[in-house]
Amino acid sequence: MRVTQFWLSFGFGLVTASVLSIAAVGLSLQFGITNYINFAYGDFMALGAYLTYAFNAEIFHVNIWFALIVGSLLMGLIAVALNRFLLSPFARRFDKTFYVLIVTFGLSLIMLNLTYSIWGPNVRSYNMKIEVDMHIGPFLLNKYEIIIMIISVVTMLLIHLMLKTTRLGKSMRAMSDNTTLAMTSGIDTKRITTITWFLSGTMAGLAGSVLGITEGNLTPAAGELFLFVIFAAVIVGGVGSIYGAMAGGVLIGLATEVSAAFINAAYKLDVAFVILILTLLFRPSGLFARSGRA
After folding, report:
1. Would 294 be classed as within a structural domain?
2. Of the four, 12, 19, 103, 214, which is 20 to 30 A from 180 by CA?
């Protein structure tokens, strides 16, 4: 019985890891370029999820996967606008990142209340067909969960190819290592920052949307609750490391879900913070961190 529960929870862990990896990589991309953490990232996820909901179940009633693409891209554009007109001016004016972090806290509250004012506090759900869980080897998964895992793998591969093979990716890696040196080398840092915010916002919207699909419901505060698990994945993997974020997302996702097979499921998120604390105690740079951030 325990063996069966283990494999079932391992399958759920793969789904959670898929969502978490997308979110963690998006946050790490933005941190690697700006060098400050966006505490409104969870609200980016929530707003992206609700934009997907608007296209899928509220306004246009389009297919969930098409709505997911549109909602995620719109969240990317919103992230660019917020950076250009709010966060970037503060970052230029104040040398200390503490001030920008305070601004992101304030932005988080504004976005949370904006989402509440538009869609209200009631739980909402996407317009999707009900799918029966299927036995795939020892796992029990439905079609949506399988598609989400595929989306996550494809997203990670695209990020890897972008960083390693494109001029944009090499420029992002150069900025992540040393922004001043990148600027003196002729890299258009403003353009790279804008693209990074678009990618980060799009991935936040994507992560929020697939989280809503896996959870089966939407609430304005869901992104904020998930944000702490994202931080755990990013820190465990190595802050600023894209590949560390991928690995951290997989580790935390599997650990939280597999632990639910052996302890009360209400405490499964505590496992993430136990791993986080142990990582900070014994390997503060992260389990998968390298000398370069990317």
Report:
1. no
2. 103
